[in-house]
Amino acid sequence: MTKQEIAEKIILNISNKLGISTSEVSHETSFKSAGVNSLDVVEIIVDAEKEFNINVPDNRLTMFQSVGILVDYVDTSLNGKLKKRRIN
Fold this sequence. Notes:
Blueprint: H1 3-18, H2 38-52, H3 67-87
């Protein structure tokens, strides 16, 4: 899955959760500026874990301050190992 596809799915989930247009959410959108509270951030992360079949350790939950950070984390979780294999 490409990073763009990951971003589209995460942005769609966030826009549905907040009841806003996908055009109002971008890679650069911070959760704070979008009015997302800490419980909503946890729910968004849990949704991403289910959607992409990944695991986010509890001690990493506070690192997600923006949509882009979550997209990057999911991309690395899904594609990071594959990229490393290609290099070797």
